[in-house]
Amino acid sequence: MQPANGTHLLFLEGEGILFSESSQKIFHLNTIATYVWCLIEEKKSAREIVDNLQSTFSLSTTKADEYLRQTEQLFESMGILAGNQELPDEQNQEPPCDQNPHQYGDSDFIAERRYRLLSSSFAIRFTDLEQVSLIDPVLGQLTEENPDKPTVTIDIIKNEASEIGLYRDKMQQLVCSEPSKLAPLVKGLVWQTAVVAHSFFLDIHAGVVGDGQYCYLLPAAPGSGKSTLTAALVHSGLEYFSDEVALLDESNFHVQPVPLATCVKNTGIEALSPYYPELPLLTEHLRGDGKRVRYMPPIKSALPPSGISRPVGAIIFPKYAPDQQARISCINALEALQRLLEECLIVDTHLDLKTVIRLLNWIKKTPCYSLKFNNLDEAISEIKVIIQESKKGNSPTK
């Protein structure tokens, strides 16, 4: 056995972390697998590895042989041995768009709105007023003052069959059958277009709030109560960065605001209505996954200054637990890294050894917590304590 080129063993919280540059993957190894990998790097033979396993872990020859065989199979499946390197997965890459532009004229449009998100300037053109009434409340907080020439034009066109087509720079991207489905598609198209055009390191599925000095990540899977908690925290006086996306900068791991309207499912209306009484009156939209949602524009005073970025003061992994009082607990860097990468949607940078080392060093110095809650006020109180601790230290270190 020999290590594949570009495979590096690192350590986090005393645990083995293996980085494969060829496959762009990071693996967590258990104690025996880490030990065997060290022996492979030292060019030990299979017999020598078995002898070392016996003496180090007090194993019988049979058990040491079995462990070595299982570990070798594991390394082969991971593609980290010479001769069986795994290449990056390209199956999820988007197919190229149809390169034949749709033919229509400027006279087809009755209104235009201008929005800015990250480094992209959008012109959205509408063919009827109903479209404006559905989209502008969702994107209104992104309205661009004194806009220059747009970098992207999105056209919303209803055809003779009453289908609504979405065109980006005259290339059809999406189509929907009814107005109630339009806003989620436009929001998603604007968001995805802006993210793809922007330079970042990691795209994490997370709520993000700020205190004027740091920002705080709330990474979680859908259905965890992340968006509801983010909106309640903003109501309590924190800045609103996003309810669903944290873009980590490669150079310093700072986060920029992506202040799209908060998406509230029907199941979250009751919990948030005490904070936002207008919520039940907002227009209901139908998402592609069948869920009915409302888009709540952020409080204007809660929006951070345009173009700023903030360091991460803490990472808090929230989970709504209906039968449990709010309880927050520290988690170590290894668990935090695993949970963070579970919510990573995009890695926009080719990983190399220096980048991975910086990622490990960053997660080691960032306070990380797990939060289970069934009451928003209690959850806010717990998080406010974490925020005060971060501000006292003047730096996000453990």
Description:
This protein is of the alpha+beta class. The chain is built from 10 helices and 20 strands. It has helices at residues 31-41, 46-57, 61-78, 129-139, 182-197, 226-235, 269-272, 333-342, 353-365, 376-393; strands at 7-12, 15-20, 25-29, 111-117, 120-126, 152-158, 164-168, 171-176, 202-204, 206-210, 215-219, 239-242, 246-248, 262-265, 284-286, 292-296, 312-320, 327-330, 344-347, 368-373. The chain has a 6-stranded mixed β-sheet, with helices on both faces. β6 and β7 form a beta hairpin. α2 (46-57) packs across α3, α4 (129-139) packs across α5 and α8 packs across α9 (353-365). The longest helix has 18 residues, at 61-78. The two termini are 39 Å apart.
